[in-house]
Amino acid sequence: MQKKIEDICSHFHIYGDFVVAIPCGNGHINDTYQLTFDQGGTLLHYTLQRINTNVFKQPAMVMENFSCVTAHILNKIRQEKKRNPQSRRRTLRLVFTHDAMPYYRDSNGDYWRCYVYVENCHSFDILEEPIQAFKAAQAFGQFQLDLADLPDRLNETIPHFHHAPRRLKALEKVMRSDHYNRMKMVGPEVDFVMQRASELDKLINLQAAGDIVERTTHNDTKLNNVLIDDFTGEGICVLDLDTVMPGLPHYDFGDMVRTGTSPAPEDETDLSKVYMRFDMFEALLRGYLDKAGHFLNDVEKELLPFSGKLMAMVIGIRFLTDFLDGDNYFKTSRVNHNLDRARSQFKLVESIEDQMSDMMKLLQEIK
Ligand code: GN1
Ligand code: MG
């Protein structure tokens, strides 16, 4: 493996000698390695990723967005008057190939990209303190704010990615075919979804009516996609830019609530451990509004609590769909993994529903 990675690295504009590549990250889609290079006796790190072309059918489009977004933010940072060393780390920095491409395509047809490894920070799968939630939400809010004046509409790397009614249709389709004969295992989960089906088109309808507006959004704001500084605790840099594209800001806030408020992992099987911690929700709301409050309209703000429920529903539907479809989308590491994930999402939905009136009350206080 090391030899192969070393060969791939040789196509990128990296100075020095390859030392080692270590697999890292726990995303469900791409393969990620931390690289070490010896640059005249100093060891420097980079991140190398293989883009999953089963999921991203047009990787060149993904990388066009990636370059555009990171260049835009970098440009902004350079123009800021009150620039501090922290703000310089606010965006990933791509390493281009020797022929100035943002990706390398190997002889197997695999697409690779490389960026500078961000030192002295970590991401968290499960947040421990509300302050982490606050800082992470600020970072995602800042990301949307930084991209609010992007001159061009980005490519849609996965069309209709968070379109909830379409996700429901996709579920219904695999339910009908039941190719893997798994429908018999998911009766309660299917009922759960169908009871809530009428709420799934709420945001899409409001968008069609012009009450809420398309913006450039991240669309995969799992809390482990933001790096927190080891020393200052600040939210430094947003990762995983594959799905940065036109979307609703609610998709980002909702996914933060989905991934940042439960004390249990996304695939927890003991459902008594899965619930929304209200203090985490409050910290997310305050952190996000600290930045996004500058551009969201009133209708958009009102929908922030609902967005948490919606995203837990939508991702739960996607896990359930993948389970019925033979687990061909999300990486899995055990039997029924996608079903476990779906169940934990639906448990979180229930917990959010139970706390919805308190969430709305809090919103009125702080918006
Ligand atoms: C995938 O790659 P990763 O793990 O950050 C997925 C997200 C889901 C998430 C669920 C392109 O994200 O949409 O919310 O898994 N990304 C894609 O954990 O489908
Ligand atoms: Mg991702």
Largest sheet: 6 strands, antiparallel
Our measurement of the CA-to-CA distance between the termini, rounded to an integer number of angstroms, reads 51 Å
Ligand kinds = 2-acetamido-2-deoxy-1-O-phosphono-alpha-D-glucopyranose, magnesium ion
Beta-strand residue percentage: 5-15%
Q: So how many helices?
A: 12
Provide the succession of SSEs: HEEEHEEEEHHHHEEEEHHHHHH
| Residue share in helix | 40-55%
Give the total of beta strands.
Answer: 11
Structural class: alpha+beta
User: What gyration radius follows from the Cα positions, in whole Å?
Assistant: 21 Å
User: Average pLDDT, to the nearest integer?
Assistant: 96
Poorly predicted residue ranges: none
C-alpha geometry: globular
Describe this structure in words.
The chain is of the alpha+beta class and 367 residues long. The protein has twelve helices and eleven strands. The strands form three sheets. Strands 1, 2, 3, 4, 5 and 6 form a six-stranded antiparallel β-sheet that branches. Strand 2 (31-39) and strand 3 (42-51) form a beta hairpin. Helix 7 (249-260) crosses helix 10 (304-324) and helix 10 runs antiparallel to helix 11 (337-354). The longest helix is centred in the N-terminal third of the chain and has 21 residues, at 59-79. The chain is globular. The chain starts with a helix and ends with a helix. The mean pLDDT is 96. 2-acetamido-2-deoxy-1-O-phosphono-alpha-D-glucopyranose binds next to loops. Magnesium ion binds at residues 27, 29, 220, 240, 242.
